[in-house]
Amino acid sequence: MRRMAAIAWKEVHHIIRDWRTMVVMFLIPIVQLFLLGYAATTDVEHIRTAVLDGDRSPESRELLRSYEASGYFSLVRCVENERELAEMIDRGEVRAGLLIPAGYGRRILAGEKAQVAFVIDGSDPNIANAVFAASQQVGQAYSLRLIERRLGISPEELMALEVRPRVWYNPEMKSVNFMIPGLMAMIMYLLTTMLTALAIVREREQGTVEQLMVSPVRPAELVVGKVLPYVAVAFLDMLEVLAIGTLWFKVPVHGSLGLLLGLSFVFLLSSLGVGIFISSVANSQQEAMLLVWLTLLPSIFLAGFFFPIEAMPPALQAISYLIPLRYMLIIMRGIILKGVGLNVLMPHIIPLLIFGIFIMGAAARRFRKRLE
User: Fold this and answer.
1) Which of 78-87, 212-221, 224-233 has the lowest mean pLDDT?
2) Cα distances (angstroms) measured from residue 93 to each of 69, 280, 351
3) Which fold has domain 47-158?
């Protein structure tokens, strides 16, 4: 224990003396949190929209006010023809266009069925789908108000079926509530893998690993002593992100914090094992960094961090079962958003533990052979 503690204390001194490493450890997670918390969102608000009003009647202006008041759309400009609208969409000045034909007001007053067109820029399918749904929602709400005005009865009385949806765990359906728990798992994986790999490779690059090996320190003690400080750093970063997510972004934590920390340690077995394995393969810190990103990118895209696994092809869904981050994302979001416990999470904890033991064992064995 004294030898491992000495190695760990030596690594702490390396961390404290290198201010760039300190920035990577504690500032980068905050930057990532705010960037993804504000930028990586599918919530549609104030979409820049152009208007082609061919009717210019009180009825058409009432429709425009309905779209403006919804909060989904910002009517930034009125155009004179469809060509001008197309040019604005091509230049990216607006994302959508509302076209009201001549005679719209007359049809509304006559009790006839009126139609308007909504043109959407589909170059970004995520935004286009959200804008499409919002345009339908606002249009249907306005249509129900017209029915109530014409017939003098509430729209509910005309409906044969009323559906009342209830959203659990994230009632406001905020993207940030989904992103931040996933970001905690991603930061833990990135930092522990990268810093562990770089710390061990740095010793080899500087020639100090040979000095350590001629000392009484055994290979296993060297590995444990090197990774212990980064385990502590990973937990501090996780608590840092959790605190900012809770206090700043108002993400509710419904589950047990102790259970979250305990399962995070299980996840660290996998990320530390990957870092040690990379350190046994790479000969320089540049190589180690490239290998870390080579493992990180597939993990992000196939683990369900950004894109739902259910929407992937069956082959990629099968590959995702081999990625530990997939299970940790489910665990993080289950504890933080749903407040579930061990009995619900056990099908995800068992494979995560198996992966962690296997990867750590294989990495330690290869690292020992490399040193010998």
Assistant:
1) 212-221
2) 21, 51, 48
3) abc type-2 transporter like fold (3.40.1710)
